[in-house]
Amino acid sequence: KAGVTQTPRYLIKTRGQQVTLSCSPISGHRSVSWYQQTPGQGLQFLFEYFSETQRNKGNFPGRFSGRQFSNSRSEMNVSTLELGDSALYLCASSLDSSGDRGVNEKLFFGSGTQLSVL
Amino acid sequence: AQSVSQHNHHVILSEAASLELGCNYSYGGTVNLFWYVQYPGQHLQLLLKYFSGDPLVKGIKGFEAEFIKSKFSFNLRKPSVQWSDTAEYFCAVNARGNNRLAFGKGNQVVVIP
């Protein structure tokens, strides 16, 4: 079974640009979450999508947005890039077959997209 | 919201030494607890998890962790480390019924052969 796939693996952008990152979850997984990993702040939760709806949101500005498609693939977008947005962006998927968050799920992480903002 | 503290960010050990990494969390409700490991150049992998039941949890590669509810702790242990245990270790917590994980800052562990 293929794991969580994130593309591209590396990205270099300049300040003010926008960027779109892609995540394909494990086949059959319905929940997709995004995390930002930096050396200073560690791993921080961005948002979670389930059945094409944002189900949970972290404390990031509105420049960070995402969406999920009917096949559970997800994209996240960062507009008006800032130097501080340089980070490893990780996607994680989970089965969540019942859609009930009371069911405790294990997250499977992708290798991430390393974004550098110059 | 939950928060997680991990101390001693950098740990250097010799092979066969014992390892213990501390993890404390703050949250008043019921939680699920996790330890993830990130080997050099690889993605985050689940080492072990605690949802309920026996507070002593055994994971892969000889790791175990003990949940002490009264201390809000979930410390990770391994009696005898190997060079291949060199990695970054993250403790994570989520509130029961919520997939949002709060991570600690991580412990960079280097095992010297």
Describe this structure in words.
- The complex is a heterodimer of chains A (118) and B (113).
- By secondary structure, chain A is mainly beta.
- Chain A is built from no helices and eleven strands.
- Chain A has strands spanning 5-7, 10-13, 19-24, 31-38, 42-50, 53-57, 64-68, 74-78, 87-94, 108-109, 113-117.
- In chain A, the strands form two sheets. In chain A, strands 2, 4, 5, 6, 9, 10 and 11 form a seven-stranded mixed sheet that branches.
- The radius of gyration of chain A is 14 Å and the shape is globular.
- Chain B is mainly β.
- Chain B is built from no helices and twelve strands.
- Chain B has strands at 3-6, 10-14, 19-21, 23-26, 31-38, 45-50, 56-58, 64-68, 73-78, 87-95, 102-103, 107-112.
- In chain B, the strands form three sheets. In chain B, strands 2, 5, 6, 10, 11 and 12 form a six-stranded mixed sheet that branches.
- The relative contact order of chain B is 0.34.
- The mean pLDDT of chain B is 92.
- Chains A and B meet through strand 4, strand 5, strand 9 and strand 10 of A and strand 6 and strand 11 of B.
Highlighted features:
heterodimer; A: 118 residues; mainly beta; 0% helix; globular; B: 113 residues; six-stranded mixed beta sheet
- Cα Rg of chain B: 13 Å
Total beta strands of chain A: 11
Query: Largest sheet of chain B, described in full?
Result: 6 strands, mixed
Strand content of chain B: over 45%
Count of helices of chain A? 0
Sheet-strand content of chain A, in percent, reads over 45%
Order of helical and strand elements of chain B:
EEEEEEEEEEEE
Are there runs of chain B of 5+ residues with pLDDT below 50, and where? none
Count the DSSP helices of chain B.
Answer: 0
